[in-house]
Amino acid sequence: MRTVDPAKRRARRRHIVNAATELFAAQGFERTTTAEICKAAGMSAGNLFHYFRSKRAIFHAVFVDDEPEDGVATKSERLAAARAADDPWTALLDTVDLLAGPAAEPLVPALVMEAMIQAHRDPELEALLSRDNDEERSTLTTLLRKASASGQIDPTLDPDDTAAWVMALIAALYTSAATEPSFSPAGQLPTLRLILQRFLRPHATPVPEGPRP
Amino acid sequence: MRTVDPAKRRARRRHIVNAATELFAAQGFERTTTAEICKAAGMSAGNLFHYFRSKRAIFHAVFVDDEPEDGVATKSERLAAARAADDPWTALLDTVDLLAGPAAEPLVPALVMEAMIQAHRDPELEALLSRDNDEERSTLTTLLRKASASGQIDPTLDPDDTAAWVMALIAALYTSAATEPSFSPAGQLPTLRLILQRFLRPHATPVPEGPRP
DNA sequence: GTCTATACTCAGATAGAC
DNA sequence: GTCTATCTGAGTATAGAC
């Protein structure tokens, strides 16, 4: 009897996901038809739906089917390393680079944008993405707290709020790249670092107003 | 014979747009059906399409049908006033408030997000929005240039790049509000101002490295 | 190939302005 | 009374998931 070859099946799934990824990035989820995906992947509708239960499932796979490659640390591992690093400020800058880096890849900003939108309407995707998101934000919060304790950043900043803003600034890199053709994420990364540096590093305390004892 | 009453017709269009706005904000453009809009507006499909040529036209109207109210300055007028203001730094902060303010309204962040997405796929909407966008950015560029000349901000910052980043930071307020339920735009506006202040205000010039004559 | 979902249409009913 | 803006809702054509 014929048995399934898991490696072959995975490869076939990846082939479909790769084809679909370009379409989703260029046209978005709703405007990409399964017929287009079939054509791009070179297969029939029947065959496509043998590998994925729905168009939605293909979209989800774009964001989770990343096979770990040997010898390369995963994002999770690198975040854990940052949390354990000796110098929290350097680790913070490294983490920002880690999170902002993919914005320079051609399809990624559009896909991230689309994922944000779709997460609104798709609780399963929402859950999928928020796991990643929580890990990123909690790493930043940890680093901000440590850097604050060691006097490397302004201690008046609230670590939770500030982590949310660091995430927002990184997200801005993606959305700007997705919406403005002239915006180059690679070229603007140094400016992002500059903004963060000036925002976070300790400042001379302003003289408090009002009468003093 | 019966004649058209322009005021009544406008009011009816607004009624439809208001009903549709909530649906577009909650579900997005593609997932909102014309049948739903009809139901929400309390009218038949035939009547709906008597007022709008297409579903798309309703979506466009969400962003352009803002009637100027008497006694209240329009955004354009306020931007022009800022460009002509005496104190460019104060005018810059005011302009940031003006552009960031709507993020505090409940439906706006989701709508702005949806507009960004749809603009990708709809050249007419793209043109519509980029007119607004260009006016906002060029106002910021002008103010940055003036503030730079008068020593109010760091002269090493490029006005065009910096204006793009100020826009990106404001956009981050909208996207964060749209995607993170715990993020309060009104509460975070002071932090946005703080980030901008620290980013833009003049800094002590670092001692240049290398040999000097 | 099948079948559902949905943007839009049309033939006609109602009613207000002249 | 006539004419036409406004409105109805069943109907159609088509797209697109499966």
From TrEMBL, chains A, B:
InterPro entries: BetI_C, Homeodomain-like_sf, HTH-type_TetR-like_transc_reg, HTH_TetR, Tet_transcr_reg_TetR-rel_C_sf. The keyword Transmembrane helix does not apply. Residues 10-70 form the HTH tetR-type domain. Residues 33-52 bind DNA. PROSITE patterns: HTH_TETR_2 (PS50977). Keywords: DNA-binding, Repressor, Transcription, Transcription regulation. SUPFAM superfamilies: Homeodomain-like, Tetracyclin repressor-like, C-terminal domain. The keyword DNA-binding applies. It comes from the Bacteria. This is TetR/AcrR family transcriptional regulator.
